[in-house]
Every structure is written in C-alpha cells, then in structure tokens.
Design goal:
Blueprint lengths: L1 E3 L9 E3 L23 E5 L12 E5 L7 E5 L1 E5 L5 E6 L15 E6 L5 E6 L7 E3 L10 E4 L4 E4 L7 E3 L9 E3 L6 E5 L9 E5 L7 E2 L7 E6 L6 E5 L12 E5 L7 E2 L10 E2 L4 E2 L5 E8 L2 E8 L6 E4 L7 E7 L15 E4 L3 E2 L12 E2 L3 E4 L23 E5 L2 E5 L5 E5 L6 E2 L12 E5 L4 E5 L6 E5 L6 E2 L12 E5 L4 E6 L3 E6 L5 E3 L12 E5 L4 E6 L3 E6 L6 E2 L12 E5 L2 E6 L3 E6 L6 E2 L12 E5 L4 E6 L3 E6 L6 E3 L6
Antiparallel strand pairs: 1-50, 2-46, 3-4, 3-27, 4-5, 6-7, 7-8, 8-9, 10-11, 11-12, 12-13, 14-15, 15-16, 16-17, 18-19, 19-20, 20-21, 22-24, 23-24, 24-25, 25-26, 28-31, 29-30, 32-33, 32-55, 33-34, 35-36, 36-37, 37-38, 39-40, 40-41, 41-42, 43-44, 44-45, 45-46, 47-48, 48-49, 49-50, 51-52, 52-53, ...
Length: 649
C-alpha cells in the first residue's frame, strides 16, 4: 500500500464555485511555545519555606508526567480558553511568601506564542481565585478575580476594572462555566455562616443563588467541562497554607447528587490546596496536595470511589496549585479588522483589533477576510471515540453487541440493540465521549445510551425507508438525531439546541454525507449522488457547493484529511482513496482492496482523518495514521459491522 499522485478520469470540475472565506494561518513556529493539548499548567511553592515569592515558579507537564518543564517565575497560573495566554501572580520580593495572605499581588499575563510578559494590574487586598472568561471573543472584562470582599472583572490589559460587593459575604474562589459564563464561587464568613457555602451568579454579577446542601466551609468550586457538576473542597478551619482542605465533594448546581470523593483525615499540615481542575473527559480531578507525607499533583477519581493517584514530576519544590489543562485547539483562527468584510488581492497582516496576530506576520495569497476576534475552534469529536481521548477507537457491532478496542486502554463490550438495528454512535450528550446508539428502521426509533449518566434516551424520528444521518448541525458540540429520506429527498433534523429543521436536498440516488465542509463548527447538509458521482453540499456559511468527484461505484469517505477544520470531499474504490483536500489539494492513496470496507477516522488524535480499511474476510483493520504510521489490529469477524461506517470524522 502506498501513496501516489495520479489523476482519475473523473477529475474535479467545480460546477458551481462557492464563495470561499479564506481563514488565515500563522506559521507553525508560533505554536512552539504553546502547551500541547492535555498538558497541565501548575505552580511550585517558593524554594525556601517562608522565603520570598520570587523563587516560586510556574511549570507545565503532561498528564503522564512527560516533558515537565519550567515556564516562568510566579504563582497561581490560569490558562486562557484558546491556550495562548496565562494569567498569574507575582508578589513584592521583599515580603515573606504567603500567597493567600499577602495583600496586593501583581497581575501578570504571559503570551505563550511570543514569551512576552506584561504586568497588567495590582490587587488591592488578598486574592483567592481568578479565571478567564470562556468567551474568547469577549471585548472587555475577560478576567474575573476576587479582592477579598469583592468580585471584580478587568480587561486583558488590566483596564476597566469593575467590582461587586456581595456583602456581608466575603472571600471567594470562582469557576466560570463554559457554555453560559455562569460563575460558581465559594463564600466564607464566620459571622454569617448561613450565607456561606457555594453560590452561583451570572458573569455580570446578577442573580446570586446559594446552592442547596452546601454550607460553611464548602469552598473552591470547579465546574466540570460539561457544565453539569461542581467539584468543591471542605475547609474545617485551623489549617496550614497551602493545604487548607481535608476532603473533596461534588454536587449538581441544583443541590442534588452530593457525593463525597475523598475520605481522608489529614493532619493540619497536609490535605488539598486551592484550585480543582477536571480532566477533559470529566473522569478525574487534579489538585496539588500533600497526603501521607507526599506532596505532588494528585489525581482524584470523580466517581466517588476514593481512588487517588499522582502524576510523576521532576524533583524540586512542592506543587501548590494546579491552574488548568491546555485545551484542544485548532490553528484555524479568524482575524478581526474591526467590522465588515475585507476582500482583495495580496496582503500583509500584522495585527488584529485588540490582539496581535499571534505575534506573527502573515504574507501572500488572495483572501476574503471576515471580521471577528480570535476564536478557539472546537475539535471535531469522532463518532467512535468512546473513551474521550480524541482518538477514534477500533470498534465493531454485531446483532446488538458492541466491541470496542479503546485507544486509551481497555475494552468496551456492551449489549445494546438487536438484529436489524443500524449502529449510529455519536456524542449525543456533549460530554466528549461517543455514546452507544442504534437506529431501528422497523419503527423509526433511536435508542441512545448517554455516556455521561448511563441513561437511555429514545427518539421516534424516522421511518423504514429513512437513512440515519446523525451529525452536529447546530454546532453545540452534541450529535443531533437526523434522517434522510431518499424517496422524498428530505432531511429531518432534530437539533439538540436549534430544534426541528426540514431541508429539501437530494433525491432517490443520493446518500447522505453530512460534514463541516465550510469550517464554521456546524455540520452541513450534503449528499453524494451515486448515479453521477456529484457532491451537493449546502454549507451553513459558505452556501451551495457542487463537485464532480467520484463514480457510480465509488464509496464517499469525507473527512478532514488535511487537518484544517473543514471536511474534505473524498471517495474510495478498489483499494484507492481519492481525496480533495480543502487546503492540501488533490492526492491518491493506495490502501485497501476490492473487498475491504473503508473506515476513516482520526486514530492517532492529530486532528487529521486517517485512511483505514476493515477486511471482513479476515477481521483485520489496516490503519495508516498521518502521525503514528501503519497499525494493524485483529478485531472483528466476517459478519461484524465496522464502526465508523463509511464516512466519519
């Protein structure tokens, strides 16, 4: 099997050229200083106990302990939602280092792409918590922090500070929820114990509500990544900095399902520190702690089992704060010209409004530049990523039984479905993991096992002749139930956020091939005409696109083969893959045979779709990873259905 450059007889012709918005890319060198997705940012205490804080330091490390490295001097880092900036504190070098009790810390921002550090402001009093707004295109108030008795916001440059005093409550440590910027904050005041505990309020300081079943001593809240749960810590009083807390808990924002996560009785100088951080799959909470004499970065199971572990780090001062996990990011970013759309020929782009273009200068090419601010493009979740590690898992389905070889380790073997059901896995609950799901053509009912809570969700949505076409059509990070009727050419979409949508797009010879062809974060309605080899794409942003790419015997296999955030038109036939990359252009890959079933997916988690085939006669998977190279897996039988079927991200 090999890659070769040949041109098929049905070479591309663009019947209707779409209007293309070219999104600019900074040079790859700009990413050299960024944290890798999944890496942890944390700080270590001053090297001498009671010494000054200028010997405290900020580090980054992989969750497996790899690449532990010094970033800069300072304390209590937070990473911005797009992974480009860290907000941290420094103190007067002449003062003894008690970072939670020293007043007036300095606020600093470090640009990870340029290594530039800027002193943006000072706190007036003691600070316990701080956070970035999750809204990456927010024009002001991007930073929230407490100033002992007040909750404040300020701009990235330290200007426009505004504060709210939730008197008589005092002291706080906050966490901001991603989907709606709802703030959870711990309040502690011995004079007003009934008002103390965990409360929520909006990012503009409105609608303060105490969470039921939290009380005096409950502090340090942290939203899970799906926004459904809050982890927090208990402070019994009389503790030694930085290990203020004895045990961890979690609770729903309505006060239900309160669960104790740890069951310790640590001495006064041991326990958990401020700042709880959820892993991206919400299975584990990270915290700088000292337990049984061992200080380190601890992993705490979020299921209430009490299981603890540590992340190995290099010797040195003890960790005293875990500040966050680097998000999965895309290099596809939109630059701002302050409004409107700028179009034209050659360009040199140095700055955007409000932020430098990642510290780089981009030159050349023609473009249409649409206004906007830097935005973090959410990674496309694989329909078969059952462990939420960003990699497609080798999976088969047979007569109601699911068998998945998880890339993160372990197996998924689950009985769900019956003979005649069509497997339709996807992330229907938005927790970053694929859910086991089937569509039953006999009655048009969808059966979905939500991985977030193991409940079964059903939807009567389809008919005996409908073809399931689940995808994220409204861009909310959740797979939407959808079907295509070849007899009518109608799409029936049940958007998890947008609601019901009906679209006329296709005919009796069409097969559905939804995907995000215009890179706007929403999957587009699209069909491949098996009689003509034509692709008809109705882009949610770019509008109509029609391509001649394939033949009546070809199998459509769209995917993001060049990693630019857009689905590429591609077909498979007789062991050959014909890919029209939206950025990389045309290529042909020889990988497979006439009897092999194509199963493209991102098996190595590098953001690019890998070519892969399943041999039903042998049960062997042949995967050509764009980063990991060749992989062969024995998984399946002649009658098993490989997942993902035909086309998948």
């Amino acid at each position: 099997m090999k890659i070769r450059n040949v041109r098929p007889k049905w070479a591309l012709s663009a019947i209707l050229l779409p209007t293309i918005v070219i999104v600019l890319f900074a040079h790859l060198t700009m990413w050299a200083q960024l944290l890798k997705p999944g890496e942890i940012i944390y700080s270590r205490a001053a090297t001498v106990a009671g010494g000054n804080c200028d010997t405290a330091s900020i580090w980054a490390v992989g969750q497996d302990g790899s690449n532990d490295r010094f970033i800069t001097n300072g304390l209590h880092p937070r990473i911005s939602p797009d992974g480009r900036l860290i907000l941290f504190k420094r103190f007067d070098p002449s003062a003894a280092c008690g970072p939670f009790f020293n007043g007036g810390p300095q606020w600093w921002i470090r640009d990870l792409t340029t290594k530039q550090e800027t002193h943006i402001s000072n706190n007036f009093f003691v600070n316990f918590g701080h956070a970035f707004s999750p809204e990456t295109n927010r024009a002001d108030g991007q930073i929230m922090f407490d100033d002992q008795t007040a909750v404040c916001r300020m701009n990235l440059d330290g200007t426009n500070r505004s504060c709210n005093f939730f008197a008589p409550r005092m002291w706080g440590h906050m966490s901001v929820r991603g989907r709606d910027s709802m703030v959870a904050m711990g309040f502690y005041d011995s004079n007003f114990q009934a008002l103390s505990g965990i409360s929520t309020f909006t990012y503009d300081f409105a609608n303060l509500q105490k969470i039921p079943n939290t009380s005096f001593g409950d502090l340090d809240p942290s939203w899970s990544n799906d926004g459904q749960t809050i982890a927090y810590a208990f402070f019994p009083g009389g503790r030694q900095e930085p290990y203020f807390f004895t045990n961890l808990f979690k609770i729903n924002p309505d006060g239900s399902n309160k669960t104790q996560l740890t069951f310790l009785n640590p001495p006064q100088a041991e326990g958990f520190s401020y700042s709880l951080v959820w892993t991206l799959d919400n299975s584990t909470i990270l915290n700088a702690a000292k337990i049984d004499g061992v200080a380190g970065i601890y992993k705490i199971a979020a299921n209430g089992s009490g299981i603890l572990g540590t992340i190995p780090i290099t010797p040195g001062a003890a960790p005293e704060w875990v500040g966050g996990i680097a998000p999965a990011y895309s290099e596809q970013q939109v630059a701002s010209f302050g409004g409107g759309v700028t179009s034209g020929g050659n360009y040199t782009l140095v700055d955007t409004v409000g932020q430098a273009f990642a510290g780089q200068t981009s030159n050349g090419g023609t473009y249409n530049l649409q206004s906007g601010f830097w935005t973090n493009v959410a990674p496309v979740q694989s329909r078969s990523d059952f462990d939420g590690d960003g990699k497609t898992d080798v999976t088969v389905y047979k007569d109601g039984s699911w068998y998945s070889l998880k890339s993160g380790g372990g197996l998924l073997i689950q009985q769900f479905g019956q003979a005649g059901d069509v497997p339709v896995p996807g992330d229907y609950d938005g927790d970053g993991k694929a859910d086991v799901a089937v569509y039953r053509p006999s009655n048009g009912v969808w059966f979905i096992v939500r991985s977030s809570d193991s409940t079964v969700q059903t939807a009567e949505w389809g008919s005996s002749t409908a073809i399931p076409a689940a995808a994220d059509f409204d861009g909310d990070g959740k797979t939407d139930v959808a079907v295509f009727g070849p007899d009518s050419g109608l799409w029936f979409i049940l958007g998890s956020t947008s609601g019901v949508r009906v679209a006329q797009w296709g005919n009796s010879t069409s097969v559905p091939v939804p995907g995000d062809y215009d890179g706007d974060g929403k999957d587009d309605v699209a069909v491949f005409d098996t009689s003509s080899g034509l692709w008809y794409i109705f882009g949610s942003t770019a509008g109509t696109q029609v391509y001649q790419w394939g033949s009546s015997t070809a199998t459509p296999v769209p995917g993001d083969y060049d990693g630019d955030g857009k689905a590429d038109v591609a077909v498979y036939g007789d062991g050959l893959w014909y890919v029209l990359g939206s950025t990389a252009g045309f290529k042909v890959i020889e990988w497979g045979s006439s009897s092999a079933i194509p199963v493209p997916g991102d098996y190595d988690g590098d953001g690019k779709t890998d070519v892969a085939v399943f041999g039903p006669d042998s049960g062997l998977w042949y995967i050509l990873g764009t980063t990991s190279g060749v992989r062969v897996a024995q998984w399946g039988s002649p009658t098993a259905i490989p997942i993902p079927p035909r086309s998948a991200p």
